[in-house]
Write a structure and sequence with these properties.
The structure holds 2 protein chains of 2 kinds. In chain A, about 75% of the residues lie in helices and about 0% in strands. By secondary structure, chain A is mostly helical. Chain A is globular and about 85 Å long. Classes of the chains: A mainly alpha, B mainly alpha. Chains A and B meet through helix 2, helix 7, helix 8, helix 10 and helix 12 of A and helix 4, helix 5, helix 9, helix 10 and helix 11 of B.
Chain lengths: ~325, ~300
Amino acid sequence: MSFQRFIFRRTLMVLPLLIGVVFITFMLVRIGGLDPVGRLAGPTATQAEFDMIRDNLGLDQPLWQQFGIYLGNVVQGDLGESWLSNRPVITDIKERAMVSLELLFWGVGLGALIGIPVGLRAAFRPNGKFDQVTRVLSLLGFSIPTYWLALVMIFVFFYLLGWAPPAIGRMSLLVTPPDAITGSYLIDGLLTANWQAAHSAASHLIMPVICLAIVSAAPIIKQTRAIAIEVLSSDTVRYAHACGLPERQVRKLVLRNSAVPVLTFVGTEVTGLVGTMSLIEYVFAWGGLGQYGLNAIISGDFTAVQGYVLVLALFSVMVFIVIDIVVHLIEPRSELN
Amino acid sequence: MTDATPDTVAPDKAFVAERSRSSQIWNRFIGIVRLSPTAAVGLFIIGVFAVLAVLAPWIMPHDPVAAYTDRVLQAPSAEHWFGTDGNGMDVFSRVIYGARFGFGIAIPAVLLSLVIGVPVGLIAGYRGGMLDEVLMRFFDGLRVFPSIILALAVVAATGQSLINVVLVLGLLDAPVFARVVRAEVLALRSSNFVESAVAAGNPTWRILFVHLLPNAIQGAMAQTAVRAAWAVRISATLAFLGVGIQAPTPEWGAMIRQGAEFMVSGQWWVALYPGLALILMVFGLNLFGDGLRDLMDPRRRTAS
């Protein structure tokens, strides 16, 4: 199968999933029996005004027709208008997406950088001392509430030690933001040689990134270990051992054979981490998509909630596709099923 | 399995059944301790929290919601072991009382997940076909959403009450059990004992619940502790965000929310202690759950 055809077919395969995802977000607001009409009309509205708003919103139509309209709007990139910001939700989301992606990238990157070597090392000597210690530590990592960890870190590194900047936003308010090129203050600062901005952005990034890395490393350690143990007991590796290959080369073989499942796992983990990350954003007042979404949920801005949840789901689906493509590049044998 | 008790003379039938069942449970328990010390530690931690939750009224030195307005934000002392919060409430008493919310949410939520998930998994696995296909696709769709966000959004949409939190967590977690049971049923569906049960003319419900259920439930039971840990964590997260359980309630997440603002002004005790309690309880459940999975299926020690 040619590469283009692979990508095409892989993308086509998600269509039913996408429609399902849109349906779930659509139902999310409907199940609550929420009444947007009452909210828009206000307490003094007459019945006639009430009905008019209802008809304008299309709520007098049957549910499947409403879903059709919603689906049509979503396809055109119209996610409705936020009640809080009075702007199209899609605009709000576009502005903040890059801000969150930056944090996610560094956080998961660092988490993988810690998690994969630790998991591999634990797998090479299962039930050894290192393995047992990391097993307990990673279980602990599963158990720590992210937001609490963030608060404790703020207390220690900002209040007690004074090493970290105050946990408000992505950059000191006294520094002029760099010209927007990518949307990431750090990269833009470096690109435009605005060292002050780059420095400030980097110092604000450290704590949330470490926080996210700790939380994401735990499952990566666990899964990498499990995958590597499986690979170690596979015929390929046992044969390599039997042939008398030196340990270093055997380990190389293990690495190569673990790469695909580990990569797939890190990709699927991103879905869950997007939720965790929104809590970190919330505590650090990051101003990204996660904080926007949480604020929308807390204040009952349901159009924004719908848009946010939908975008998160679409992002996950996109990550799955990208991973499948990367896996296909590494391992062209892998087929679609 | 059969625990013959030689010292009982002409025992009553019911008594024997009772006796062997309780000794079975005891043997299981000893087995857990011996086979998996980490699971035993987890069980111990859960036990301590259970005792705290049950005996809370007698252990707490203060009323968890009594505001001593003259002792606002006091540091930990002999009178207030964990200090007092912004309302002048005793943090130690509140942390102990919080264990009740941990169990009070996790147990019914997991039970609800089991009650919904297990039958769905049984039917989907046994019937197969279109129904199975649609259900599995739906569960796949749900998986694309981060669970915290989905739980938050649904609780916020359906109304913020403690009962709603339990219902939503129970519903959202049901697919986990449905998947596990379905996989087991798929493997068992064409085995001899099921086919002979069909041939003997058993109605479908009997095959599902009398013949398949006892054989397919083990995997689901192994998941319960880990899912309870999830429920405790998520419910605390909801409370931290002020969704579901509201602030003066002595729930750990809500207490961390109250303490958040004091972290940058140095009153660390308000948020630190409920967080430690939360970690410890979730950690205990995870330790126990991890060991439980190993015990029920040694092969899973390597997989997830």
